[in-house]
């Protein structure tokens, strides 16, 4: 894999270099430094700082409460909770880091590789730059997640998809303001969670504008390995499903680690109303062919089941879920599919209660949740009160917030994550892709075939579809 790594040019060309050697001496750096001072003092700002950086500052200040005076990254926890089957990923990334480290040595830079929690696994590059980096504990077994060390190339790349640059005073911690960093995360194609990151750091000097594209190309081979592993895991789950399903005609299905349905028998397809022709009936190895159930509380139950099964491969448990509209909750028993001592999926039987019972933690106290939602539009961050949002619409993992100020991309990815923040403010899921502010529903309209639509803005003819699963509860909540 490492033979596919493209050539790396880390230093800007002479024509690109700015006057002065210090990162902090440029006009843009001075402007960002002033914004950082104001923001760190408690002010809210919307312009002058790139949206992805400002969103990171909000996380560091308001959610993670990272001390901006921190000058040394904390050590990482000693327990090794990484999946063994990620070893091939880290081997490939180590090869990329070593090759890149030799190339950046002449430019006074350091290349680092972290796991999905921001724990540094290896560092390569210029020895003098490495010694300087070690003063901040930018070295193996230190933790550079945003939660521990604030805005930085490694930690911030784990929060976002695609390459991320963090230059000078864009770092949350002042001690790192003379570093320029660029990082990229590698994500699990099944769960969307970060598996690892690769980062390049340079002391008191800019990085070439070509570095982000180099990072994207360099890690593409690792993404292919993760995709191959997802297909392998799905085949293992489908094989187990077929063996178990042969002995039962009751509703039965199999899921991957992310809660996506890989296989289901006809009884489960009918129960879940998946539709007639579906690859789920024969088994969907391809991630794009899998189906995500639109069941309230389902993602939390899957997360709980995965955690329990990882601790005990013989585990089984059940939860009551509102599978069928207008009916009582249906029990769902889950058992793990294990390969190489790791959970690769779950087998699920409907109408069965066996093993440990799921106990919902309940919604968080509203006072602990953010009272404003952060969105991104063009080159600025937008701060929204929940009452300003009419509805949220998911486009895969990107969420769009529809407001009086137009469509604004949520800084948080994933509709489930946005939902957790908005439910205490009167929002409800009405469709697998839509979350609505019940206080902003203007009218209801029934379609030709009995479909239900919410009209959120009668002047703009703004329609939100309601799935049959959510229609009864929605009518009850609206009193119609």
Please describe the structure with a list of short key phrases separated by commas or semicolons.
480 residues; alpha+beta; Beta-Lactamase; OB fold (Dihydrolipoamide Acetyltransferase, E2P); 3 domains; seven-stranded antiparallel sheet; six-stranded mixed sheet; 12 helices; 21 strands
Strand content: 25-35%
Whole-number tally of structural domains: 3
Query: Can you say what the CATH homologous superfamily of the largest domain is?
Result: GAF domain
Which strand order does the major sheet show?
13-12-16-15-14-18-17
Integer average pLDDT: 86
CATH topology name of the largest domain: Beta-Lactamase
Name of the top-level CATH class of the largest domain = Alpha Beta
Oligomer: single chain
* Coarse shape: globular
Distance between the termini: 60 Å
Indicate the percent of residues in helices: 25-40%
Structural class: alpha+beta
Description:
The protein is an alpha+beta fold. The protein has three domains: 2-218, 2-Layer Sandwich (Beta-Lactamase); 231-357, Beta-Lactamase (2-Layer Sandwich); 366-478, LytTr DNA-binding domain (OB fold (Dihydrolipoamide Acetyltransferase, E2P), Beta Barrel). The protein contains twelve helices and 21 strands. The protein has helices spanning 27-40, 51-63, 87-104, 127-135, 146-149, 153-159, 211-218, 220-245, 266-272, 298-311, 415-422, 471-478; strands spanning 109-115, 120-125, 164-167, 179-187, 194-203, 252-256, 261-264, 317-321, 330-339, 342-350, 356-357, 373-377, 380-384, 389-395, 398-403, 406-410, 427-431, 434-437, 443-446, 452-457, 462-466. The strands form four sheets. Strands 13-12-16-15-14-18-17 form a seven-stranded antiparallel sheet. A hairpin with a 5-residue loop joins strand 19 (443-446) and strand 20 (452-457). The chain is globular, with a radius of gyration of 24 Å. Residues 373-480 form the HTH LytTR-type domain. It comes from Amycolatopsis methanolica 239. InterPro entries: GAF-like_dom_sf, LytR-like, LytTR_DNA-bd_dom.
């Amino acid at each position: 894999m490492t033979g596919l790594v493209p050539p790396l040019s880390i230093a800007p060309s002479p024509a690109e270099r700015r006057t002065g050697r210090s990162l902090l001496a440029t006009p843009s750096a001075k402007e960002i430094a002033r914004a950082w001072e104001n923001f760190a003092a408690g002010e809210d700002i919307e312009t002058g700082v790139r949206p992805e950086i400002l969103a990171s500052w909000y996380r560091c200040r308001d959610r993670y409460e990272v001390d901006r005076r921190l000058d040394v990254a904390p050590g990482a926890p000693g327990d090794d909770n990484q999946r063994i089957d990620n070893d091939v990923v880290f081997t490939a990334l180590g090869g990329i880091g070593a090759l890149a480290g030799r190339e950046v040595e002449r430019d006074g830079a350091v290349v680092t590789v972290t796991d999905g929690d921001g724990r540094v696994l290896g560092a390569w590059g210029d020895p003098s730059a490495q010694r300087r980096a070690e003063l901040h504990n930018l070295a193996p077994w230190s933790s550079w997640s945003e939660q521990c060390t604030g805005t930085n190339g490694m930690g911030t790349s784990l929060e976002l998809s695609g390459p991320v640059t963090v230059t000078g005073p864009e770092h949350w911690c002042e001690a790192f303001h003379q570093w320029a960093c660029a990082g990229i995360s590698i994500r699990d194609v099944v769960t969307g969670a970060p598996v690892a990151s690769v980062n390049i750091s340079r002391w008191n000097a800019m990085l070439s504008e070509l570095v982000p594209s180099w990072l994207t190309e360099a890690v593409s081979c690792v993404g292919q390995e993760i995709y191959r592993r997802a297909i392998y895991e799905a085949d293992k789950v489908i094989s187990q499903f077929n063996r178990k399903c042969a002995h039962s005609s009751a509703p039965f299905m199999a899921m991957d680690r992310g809660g996506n349905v890989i296989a289901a028998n006809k009884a489960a397809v009918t129960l879940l109303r998946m539709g007639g022709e579906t690859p789920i009936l024969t088994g969907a190895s391809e991630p794009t062919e899998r189906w995500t159930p639109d069941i309230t509380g389902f993602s939390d139950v899957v997360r709980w089941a995965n955690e329990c099964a990882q601790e005990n491969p013989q585990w089984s448990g059940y939860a009551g879920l509102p599978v069928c509209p207008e009916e009582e909750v249906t029990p769902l028993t889950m058992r793990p599919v294990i390969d190489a001592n790791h959970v690769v999926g779950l087998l699920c039987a409907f109408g069965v209660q066996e093993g440990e019972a799921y106990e919902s933690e309940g919604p968080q106290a509203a006072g602990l949740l953010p009272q404003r939602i952060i969105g991104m539009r063009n080159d600025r961050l937008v701060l929204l009160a929940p009452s300003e949002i009419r509805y949220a619409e998911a486009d895969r993992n990107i969420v769009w917030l529809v407001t009086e100020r137009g469509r604004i991309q949520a800084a948080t990815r994933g509709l489930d994550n946005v939902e957790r923040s908005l439910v205490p403010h009167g929002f409800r899921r009405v469709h697998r892709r839509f979350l609505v502010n019940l206080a902003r529903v203007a009218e209801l309209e029934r379609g030709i075939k009995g479909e239900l639509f919410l009209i959120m803005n009668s002047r703009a003819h703004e329609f939100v579809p309601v799935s049959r699963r959510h229609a009864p509860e929605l009518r009850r909540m609206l009193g119609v």
